[in-house]
C-alpha cells in the first residue's frame, strides 16, 4: 500500500491564510484526524467595503472538492467581491456519520465573517453563499434552518447566521425520490436507506428532514439556483423542487436549467476543463485521514484501505478527459451576479 506516493507533498495542505472556525475544546469529530474546519479569505488590497461570497465546494459530504474552491473564489473576486472558501467537516471513509457537524461549521463561518466585517472590508448585509452539489445542500440547509443552529459562544450566537442570499449550483436537495444517496449516507450512516425501506420511523423522519424543499418558509434566504438538464448524478429535479418551494413561499428566487452538461461543472470554462483549479488546500481532511491510515490509527480492513487509497489522487489527464468547456453554462456567474445586484 503506497501511502508515501499519495501523501507526497500534501501533508501540510492548510493554506497559510486559513482561519480556524473553532476555539480549542469547541470542535470534535472522530474522523477529523487532526483536521480543523477553516476558511481562506481572498480580500482586495484596498479598504473599499464590498459584498462577500462564501464558497462552499461539493464532494458528497465525503471530501471538499478543489474544483469548486479557489477557482470559484477567484472568479467572484475578479467581479468585485471579497471571497472566502470554506473547508468544512466531511466523512471521508463513510464510517462516522456527520449529522449536523458540517451545518455547525457553516453557521460558525457566517457568524465569524460577520463579526469581522471591518477586518475583511465587507458589507455585513451583503453576505452571500455559493454552494455546489453537497455543498449546495449545506448552503440550502443553513438557508432553511439558520434559526435552529445555536453557537456555543454567546458573543457569536448573538450574531445572525442567516445569509443575505445564496447561489445553489446543481445542489443536492431531495433525500428520497431524487436523492444523491451517498451524500445522505455520509451524513446519517450507510444504513439510512435500508432502515427507511424497512419502515424504520426514525430513518424515514431523518430523510424527510433532510429533504430541504419540504421545509422552506417565508424566512428562507433568497436563492439563485442552477442545474444542467443532463445531470445524472444529482437530478435536476432537486433544483426544480427547491425553486418551486421558494416561489410558493414568496421568497425571492431565480432558476436556470441549462440544456447541456452533466454534474460537477464548476465554472465550465477552459481553466476548469484543464484542471487549473488553484490551490488544493480544501482536501486537507482527506489527506489527514490517509496519514492516519498510514499510522494504523483507523481500524478498517486492508481492502477498504486499498480502495480508499486508489480513490485519493491528484487528477490526471485521463481523469480530466470528461471535462468539456460549456459556453452556455460558463455564463452562470454573470447571471448570478446580476441577480444578486437586483436584490440591492
Description of the structure:
The structure is a single chain. With 344 residues, the protein is an alpha/beta fold. The protein has one domain: Alpha/Beta hydrolase fold, catalytic domain (Rossmann fold, 3-Layer(aba) Sandwich). It contains 15 helices and 8 strands. The chain has helices at residues 3-7, 70-78, 101-115, 117-120, 134-145, 154-157, 181-188, 192-197, 201-210, 237-248, 270-273, 284-294, 302-311, 317-320, 332-343; strands spanning 19-20, 38-42, 50-56, 82-87, 122-132, 165-169, 223-228, 253-258. An 8-stranded mixed β-sheet has the order 1-2-4-3-5-6-7-8, with helices on both faces. Helix 10 links the parallel strand 7 (223-228) and strand 8. It is globular. The mean pLDDT is 95.
CATH architectural arrangement: 3-Layer(aba) Sandwich
Q: Give me the strand/helix succession.
A: HEEEHEHHEHHEHHHEHEHHHHH
Annotation, overall tally of beta strands: 8
Which shape, going by the Cα principal axes? globular
CATH superfamily: Alpha/Beta hydrolase fold, catalytic domain
The main pleated sheet reads as: 8 strands, mixed
Number of helices: 15
- Compute the number of structural domains: 1
Task: Give the CA-CA distance, first to last residue.
Answer: 55 Å
| pLDDT averaged residue by residue | 95
Q: Tell me the strand percentage band.
A: 5-15%
CATH topology: Rossmann fold
Tell me the strand order in the biggest sheet: 1-2-4-3-5-6-7-8
Oligomer: single chain
Rg value? 19 Å
CATH class: Alpha Beta
| Helix and strand composition category | alpha/beta
Poorly predicted residue ranges = none
Roughly what percent helix?
25-40%
Amino acid at each position: 500500500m503506497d501511502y508515501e506516493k499519495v501523501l507526497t507533498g500534501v501533508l501540510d495542505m492548510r493554506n497559510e491564510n486559513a482561519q480556524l472556525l473553532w476555539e480549542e475544546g469547541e470542535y470534535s469529530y472522530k474522523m477529523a484526524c487532526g483536521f480543523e474546519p477553516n476558511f481562506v479569505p481572498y480580500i482586495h488590497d484596498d479598504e473599499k467595503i464590498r459584498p462577500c461570497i462564501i464558497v462552499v465546494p461539493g464532494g458528497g459530504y465525503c471530501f471538499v472538492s478543489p474544483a469548486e474552491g479557489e477557482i470559484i473564489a477567484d472568479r467572484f473576486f475578479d467581479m468585485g467581491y471579497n471571497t472566502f472558501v470554506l473547508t468544512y467537516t466531511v466523512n471521508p471513509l463513510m464510517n462516522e456519520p456527520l449529522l449536523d457537524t458540517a451545518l455547525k461549521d457553516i453557521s460558525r463561518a457566517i457568524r465569524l465573517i460577520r463579526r469581522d466585517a471591518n477586518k475583511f472590508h465587507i458589507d455585513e448585509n451583503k453576505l452571500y453563499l455559493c454552494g455546489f452539489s453537497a455543498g449546495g445542500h449545506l448552503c440550502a440547509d443553513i438557508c432553511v434552518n439558520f434559526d435552529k443552529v445555536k453557537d456555543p459562544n454567546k458573543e457569536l450566537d448573538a450574531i445572525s447566521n442567516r445569509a443575505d442570499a445564496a447561489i445553489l449550483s446543481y445542489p443536492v436537495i431531495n433525500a428520497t425520490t431524487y436523492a444523491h444517496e451517498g451524500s445522505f449516507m455520509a451524513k446519517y450512516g450507510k444504513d439510512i436507506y435500508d432502515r427507511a425501506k424497512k419502515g424504520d420511523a426514525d430513518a424515514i423522519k431523518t430523510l424527510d428532514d433532510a429533504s430541504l424543499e419540504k421545509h422552506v418558509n417565508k424566512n428562507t434566504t433568497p436563492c439563485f439556483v442552477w442545474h444542467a438538464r443532463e445531470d445524472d448524478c444529482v437530478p435536476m429535479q432537486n433544483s426544480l423542487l427547491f425553486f418551486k418551494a421558494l416561489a410558493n413561499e414568496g421568497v425571492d428566487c431565480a432558476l436556470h436549467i441549462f440544456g447541456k452538461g452533466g454534474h460537477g461543472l464548476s465554472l465550465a470554462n477552459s481553466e476548469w476543463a484543464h484542471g487549473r483549479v488553484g490551490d488544493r488546500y480544501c482536501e486537507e481532511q482527506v489527506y489527514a485521514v490517509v496519514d492516519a491510515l498510514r499510522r494504523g490509527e483507523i481500524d478498517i480492513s486492508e481492502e477498504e484501505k486499498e480502495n480508499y487509497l486508489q480513490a485519493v489522487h491528484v487528477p490526471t489527464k485521463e481523469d480530466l478527459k470528461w471535462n468539456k468547456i460549456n459556453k452556455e453554462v460558463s455564463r452562470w456567474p454573470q447571471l448570478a451576479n446580476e441577480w444578486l445586484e437586483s436584490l440591492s
